[in-house]
Amino acid sequence: LHRTFCDYILNISDKTYGEIRDTLRSTYKLPLPVGAPTQTYSRDQHRDAFLKFASFVQGNLNGQTSVRIDGTWASQSEVIRGFADFSLPDMVLREACLADELAYLAETLGLEAPPVESAPEEMPFSLAEIYDAEVEEAVKAAYQWDYMMFGFASWA
């Protein structure tokens, strides 16, 4: 959720959801800078904006906002449920053991496993820089079903 917040909402780039960003600022009162974050945008401001985004996402996933549910922040269980109506997945790979599970899957298909690359650093602040119990609880509240279905533990 933090990567989605940084990539699609906070930072200004070709990935930015401009209309949603504007709606979050005006209607849902997310404390986002008008343009791209500058040197004056603090870690505390970032944490506050992210907490408010997590609260928005919780309402959004529960159908309580006027903004569409976007695939970048959709619940993983809902995404799987959505395509399971067409065909059930053979496997669900978990991030914690992704390299091993990809290697197994590739081996069963007679292929070489692709490398698992690290995600690029989140900007302007990493999740580690703003993470605490309150952040964990806000994300857990938004994705309660995913935590139960996939056995997610606290991020730290």
What's the helix and strand layout?
Layout lengths: L1 H9 L7 H9 L16 H19 L14 H9 L13 H11 L18 H4 L2 H10 L1 H7 L6
Helix pairs in contact: 3-7
Could you give a short description of this structure?
With 156 residues, this protein is mainly α. It has helices spanning 2-10, 18-26, 43-61, 76-84, 98-108, 127-130, 133-142, 144-150.
Descriptive notes:
With 156 residues, the protein is mostly helical. Helices cover 50% and strands 0% of the residues. The chain contains eight helices and no strands. The model has no long low-confidence stretch (mean pLDDT 92).
Which keywords apply here?
single chain; 156 residues; mainly alpha; 50% helix; globular
- Low-confidence segments: none
Helix content: 40-55%
Element-by-element helix/strand order:
HHHHHHHH
Question: How would a textbook summarize the main sheet?
Answer: none
Q: Any idea what the shape is? A: globular
Query: What is the average of the pLDDT values?
Result: 92
Structural class: mainly alpha
Query: What's the total number of strands?
Result: 0
Put simply, the count of helices is: 8
How far apart are the first and last residues' alpha carbons, in Å? Answer: 15 Å
Strand content: under 5%
Q: If you compute it from the alpha carbons, what radius of gyration comes out, rounded to the nearest whole angstrom?
A: 17 Å
